[in-house]
Write a structure and sequence with these properties.
The protein is α+β, with helices and mostly antiparallel strands. It folds into two domains: about 70 residues, no CATH class; about 110 residues, Trna Endonuclease, Chain: A, domain 1, CATH 3.40.1350.10. It has six helices and eleven strands.
Length: about 200
Amino acid sequence: MNTQPVASEFDEELFGFDFLAEIDRELINDQEDFAENEDGVWRTVRGRKVFIKEGETPTQAIKRSIAERSAKSKASHIPATKERQLKAAKYEESVAKLISGKNLDDHEPFDVIKGQHAVEVKSILPGAKNPKVTMHPDSLLRKEQFLKQSKMTGHTVVIDARTNKPVYYYKAHVGSFRLSSMQQVKASELKGLMK
């Protein structure tokens, strides 16, 4: 069971009363506004832009913003079922075969290794709404450390399997990407990208 507070359950315990009071003080003292209109004002709070509605305190605006982001995230979430995990594993195997690489076990920093090339394989399966792949910051750090220690080059291959014929995308880095920022390639072209 998840014991961490959900973002929509925002309260002083999650961020600390002193933290919230300090934000309120900072914004009251800082009168520089961004894009003010009759409904409220955009302000930068600790490096994040927050829309503060008229009559709302900065703390209330932060609570609302977090709750809205949490609701949006929950609405787009697709559970990782065993079936979906097996499909993704098959795509990893197919990329390993396509590039003549070695498919690694789970819990390794990368999915496929070929010579001095480490490949992260991501799958976008039917039901996914967003044309993007994300990588948790801790996972990204682990991958970057692995690349540095092993003196390997990192690659990301995304298989968009939302249609009948999968579409392959390539990026010569690791990280979170929108498909529009990646190079669309044919499956047969992948091997040539990792020489």
